[in-house]
Automatic annotation (TrEMBL):
Subcellular location, record wording: Cell membrane
Name this polypeptide is given: DHA1 family inner membrane transport protein
Signal peptide: none
Record-annotated membrane-spanning stretches: 28-49, 69-90, 97-118, 124-147, 159-177, 183-205, 226-250, 262-282, 289-310, 316-335, 356-377, 383-403
Source species: Rhizobium viscosum
SUPFAM superfamilies: MFS general substrate transporter (SSF103473)
Pfam families registered for this protein in UniProt: MFS_1
Length: 410
């Protein structure tokens, strides 16, 4: 068991301190692997349901749109759970909190597999979503605390790699076996992944100390800090475009590019490859220039989402644009690291809230994209929606940058 003592940064500070106090490279790698395993399970569980909705609907004798409520229930759990858990668990050691969060996630998925009714299944999906944001936030803080400051974003990116790999491998495989065998198998599998993660965290994540003076009130102070609110707004508004496009990619593929339904799976793979590439490249860039990566990714999104709308009728351009839009996930590690910089002593709440903000972006992007489609502008127009959202996010980023420069000159 790797129960080494980690530098004091793990109990609240974002500074990794002298490199002499840092754990060995092997310990860091094992910790990142354990934390990424949880991200893989969460990502698989969150997205696999989208391909299994018809199967769920048949089992519970509801329509497919009604079955879609379980996706909303999970997302609501993420949005509510992240800040609530961060506040309530303010005096809990991060290792202990990670164990509790992943255990709740594992049990929630296993119970989802044996839910006796649609109502109970929906409630269980809400409960299972509660630990999502808090887990990623706390895992990012733990990973960042174990490396030098100039490598924090890459450490965060490796933890989030579990989520991006899930979109590429976990979700397609779980969906395939869920359709071939039974959709309950998918949730049972995700629950087992959660239990394996509990074991990995138990063995490899070091014990840590609770930060002196930790309290719910101190965590709540995060929402009094303008830079935290602006960073969360950048995520919630500026990155809704990815979800505006991705939510309707199946219809865009078949009705705009006129490709067969089998091509939808290829588009999902291209998007997953793009997310993984963006995560790796973005975390490296963020360690070089954090603010530059955030601002640059917003400009990048405006360009590629506009290109998506202009060229969606071309199968080859559609595939290229789907990959490039997926690369926009490069901002994920950067925004998570930015929150560490501006959160001061309210680290947990700020870090956990990042995933609430991205789920708001998911809901906002899908809703606005649906409106544009309903107004008759077509599925390809979702890219324009995304470009507008990224443009608005750029305004929020400019406000954050202006405040940053003003505080430095004061």
């Amino acid at each position: 068991m790797s129960q080494v003592a980690v530098n004091d940064s793990i109990d609240g500070s974002i500074d990794s301190g002298p490199e002499a106090t840092l754990p060995s490279a092997m310990t860091v790698a094992l910790v990142q692997l354990a934390l990424a395993a949880g991200g893989f399970g969460i990502g698989t569980g969150e997205f696999a349901i989208m391909g299994l909705l018809p199967n769920v609907a048949d089992t519970f004798s509801v329509t497919t749109p009604q079955a879609g409520y379980v996706i909303s229930a999970y997302a609501l759990g993420v949005v509510i759970g992240a800040p609530v858990i961060a506040v309530l668990a303010a005096k809990m050691a991060r290792r202990t909190l990670l164990l509790c969060l992943m255990l709740l996630f594992a049990v929630g998925n296993i119970l989802s597999a044996v839910a006796p009714s649609f109502e109970s299944f929906t409630v269980l999906r809400f409960i299972t979503g509660l630990p999502h944001g808090a887990y990623f936030g706390v895992a990012a803080l733990v990973a960042a605390s174990m490396v030098p400051v100039h490598r924090r974003a890459r450490a965060v990116g490796r933890v989030m790699l579990g989520l991006t790999v899930a979109t590429l491998l976990g979700t397609p495989l779980t969906t395939f076996f869920g359709q071939a065998l039974d959709w309950q198998v998918a949730f049972l599998t995700v629950g087992i992944i959660g239990l394996v993660t509990v074991a990995l965290i138990w063995f490899y994540v070091p014990h840590d100390k609770v930060s002196e003076g930790a309290s719910a009130l101190r965590e709540l102070s995060a929402f009094r800090r303008p830079q935290i609110l602006l960073t969360l707004a950048i995520a919630a508004v500026g990155y809704g475009g990815m979800f505006a496009m991705f939510s309707y990619i199946a219809s865009t593929t078949t009705q705009v590019a006129m490709l067969p339904e089998t091509a939808v799976a290829l588009m999902l793979v291209l998007f997953g490859v793009g997310m993984n590439a963006g995560n790796v490249i973005g975390s490296w860039l963020a360690d070089k220039s954090l603010l530059g990566t955030i601002g640059g990714s917003l400009v990048y999104n405006i360009v590629v989402l506009t290109m998506f709308s202009l060229t969606a009728s071309s199968p080859y351009m559609l595939g290229l644009c789907v990959f490039l839009v997926g690369c926009g996930f490069a901002a994920g590690p950067a925004l998570q690291t930015r929150l560490m910089d501006v959160a001061a002593d309210a680290q947990t709440l700020a870090a956990a809230s990042n995933h609430s903000a991205f789920n708001i972006a998911n809901a906002l992007g899908a809703w606005l994209g649906g409106l544009v489609i309903a107004w008759g502008y077509g599925f390809a127009a979702t890219g324009y929606v995304g470009a507008v959202l990224s443009f608005l996010g750029l305004f929020v980023f400019a406000a954050s940058l202006r405040l940053e420069l003003r505080s430095r000159s004061a």
